[in-house]
Structure to design on (334 residues):
C-alpha cells in the first residue's frame, strides 16, 4: 500500500498492510535528533503520513523583543522557557472590552500563502489543514484562563457572545481552507488536564460542544475528515466527539487513559493517533522497552485498523535520542 492508502484504510477501520505513523518534534528534540543522526534533514526521511498546512496563523508569530512573540491575534507569548509555544503574557479582552476587540482578517492572504506550495510538494502523504486554538484555547488566550472559567459560571451571556465571535471567525477561515484540495482538518483545543475535563463535562457541553459541532459538520460536508487534538483525560467526552463528527482522536495519552480499553469501547467508531508515551517511555525507558511498547501498540491498537502510531505529543526536549531512534526504527521496518 501507499502511505495514503494505509491511512485511509486505517481510518475506515480496516487493516492496512502496515500501521501508518506520524512523528512531530519540539525544537530542542529536533536538534538533538539532527545531531544524533548527523543529518538536519532527517525528519523528511522518516516516512510520516501527514503534510501539515497551518491555517490558524500561529506560525506567523513575530518576535518583538528577546523571547517575546506576538501571534496573529495580538497575544504575547513568552518563550524564554518553552521555545515552541510559550506562556501568555498579556490580556486582550475583559468582560467590559469585548466590543472594542477587532478579530484578525480571516481572508488575509498570508494565512493561506503556503498552502499551494505544500500541497504541490505533498507527494503520497495525506494533506492536513491545521487549525489550533479553536474555541476554548482561543478564548482563554485572549482573556485569561482563570477569568474565562469564572465567567463560565458567573457571566454566561458574555462567554456565549465571546465564543460566538470566535466561531464566526473560525468558520470563515475553515470555509477558505476547505476550498483547497486538502484531505482533512486537524482542530486543536485542549479541554483536559491529567485528571479530567478542565471546566467539567456539563460546562463543556454547554459552551464548547455546539460550536465545535458546527465546525466539524461543515468540514464533513465538504468530504474531508476531522481530526481533533485535545490533551488530557477527556475519555468521558469521546461519545460527544463521535456525535460531533470526529474521525481521529489525538493525542491518545497512555498516561491519562487506558488506551487499550478505549480502543475496545470506541474503536469501531473512532480512530486514534498517538499512544506512545512522551512522559514515561521516551524520556525514561530503555531502547528495548521503547521498541516493545511501540510494537505492542501497533499489534493491539492497530488490529483491525483505526490507528496512526505516534508519540502522544510533539516529542519533548527530555526524550532520549536512543529511544526516539528505536521508535522510528520499529515504525519504519514493520
Amino acid at each position: 500500500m501507499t502511505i495514503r492508502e494505509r491511512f485511509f484504510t486505517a481510518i475506515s477501520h480496516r487493516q492496512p498492510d502496515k500501521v501508518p505513523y506520524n512523528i512531530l518534534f519540539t525544537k530542542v528534540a529536533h536538534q538533538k535528533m539532527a545531531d544524533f543522526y548527523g543529518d538536519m534533514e532527517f525528519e523528511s526521511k522518516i516516512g510520516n503520513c501527514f503534510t501539515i498546512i497551518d491555517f490558524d496563523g500561529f506560525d506567523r508569530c513575530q518576535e518583538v523583543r528577546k523571547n517575546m512573540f506576538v501571534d496573529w491575534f495580538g497575544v504575547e507569548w513568552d518563550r524564554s522557557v518553552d521555545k515552541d509555544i510559550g506562556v501568555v503574557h498579556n490580556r486582550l479582552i475583559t468582560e467590559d472590552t469585548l466590543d472594542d476587540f477587532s478579530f484578525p482578517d480571516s481572508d488575509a492572504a498570508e494565512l493561506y500563502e503556503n498552502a499551494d506550495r505544500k500541497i504541490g510538494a505533498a507527494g503520497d502523504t495525506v494533506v492536513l489543514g491545521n487549525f489550533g486554538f479553536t474555541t476554548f484555547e482561543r478564548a482563554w488566550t485572549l482573556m485569561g484562563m482563570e477569568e474565562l472559567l469564572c465567567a463560565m459560571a458567573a457571566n454566561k451571556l458574555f462567554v456565549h457572545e465571546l465564543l460566538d465571535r470566535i466561531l464566526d471567525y473560525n468558520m470563515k477561515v475553515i470555509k477558505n481552507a476547505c476550498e483547497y484540495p486538502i484531505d482533512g482538518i486537524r482542530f486543536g483545543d485542549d479541554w483536559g488536564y491529567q485528571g479530567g475535563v478542565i471546566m467539567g463535562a456539563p460546562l463543556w457541553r454547554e459552551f464548547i460542544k455546539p460550536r465545535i459541532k458546527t465546525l466539524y459538520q461543515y468540514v464533513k460536508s465538504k468530504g474531508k475528515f476531522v481530526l481533533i487534538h485535545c490533551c488530557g483525560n477527556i475519555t468521558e467526552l469521546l461519545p460527544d466527539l463521535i456525535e460531533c463528527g470526529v474521525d481521529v482522536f489525538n493525542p491518545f495519552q497512555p498516561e491519562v487513559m487506558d488506551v487499550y480499553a478505549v480502543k475496545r469501547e470506541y474503536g469501531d467508531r473512532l480512530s486514534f493517533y498517538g499512544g506512545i508515551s512522551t512522559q514515561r517511555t521516551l524520556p525514561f525507558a530503555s531502547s528495548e522497552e521503547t521498541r516493545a511498547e511501540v510494537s505492542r501498540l501497533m499489534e493491539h491498537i492497530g488490529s483491525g485498523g483505526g490507528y496512526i502510531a505516534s508519540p502522544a505529543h510533539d516529542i519533548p526536549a527530555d526524550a532520549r535520542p536512543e529511544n526516539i531512534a528505536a521508535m522510528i526504527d520499529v515504525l519504519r521496518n514493520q
Q: What stands out?
A: The mean pLDDT is 97. The chain has twelve helices and 13 strands.
